Amino acid sequence: MALSDPDPSLDLDLLAASLRADEAELGSFVEAVAAKLEAAVPGAVRVQRQRDGLLGPKRVARVSLDAGGQRLELIREGTGVQARCARVSGGIVLKSETVDTDTWLAALSGALADEARRSQTTREALGRLLNP
User: Fold this and answer.
1) pTM
2) Which residues pair with 106 in a beta bridge?
């Protein structure tokens, strides 16, 4: 896949596979998703971190991406993770549902592909993520 090519059929399966590979260790998966999204779309992603214990390290608790009328959230819950997809209009959530991780990753790939079609900066950032 050549991300420098402005082809509208931009395929981000490689990013999804990379994120899925990190899913084997859940803590790493959530941290990796946050880091990759912060690098690719810093203006559209919000990452909430919480400290583990009184002096423990801050870890990602929630990752939220707003793109194209949808909000994609990944929420760490103890030893599990909750993936949510929501339809948003004017900053108001119209419909929200919990989905499995594969469905969430597919929605994330689609949202990032749409953003990459609109933004050369995002396309270049995704290129760096996929081809380090």
Assistant:
1) 0.72
2) none
